[in-house]
Request: fold
Amino acid sequence: VIVGGGHAAGQACASLRQEGYQGEIVVIGDESHLPYQRPPLSKQYLSGEHGVEKVHLRPAKFYADQRITLKLGVRATAIDTAAHTVTTDAGETIP
Reply:
């Protein structure tokens, strides 16, 4: 489980798969969109130079193809280190 859906989360997912990790990957992010690059968002996207797809680190298809579950628009509210679980504001507990 990766808490946070920013640039680091997107790259961590890709790196895990590139290095051969075959286990489940779940990304919990309170923003409702795919992991994106912050500097281009603040410059090219907001100026209208680039469309939103240009600031996403990878297209949605990448995450589906790589068996990465994105829980977007969801906030992690508790981490239970003893039980190895993360609870979300939707009441879901993820191992």
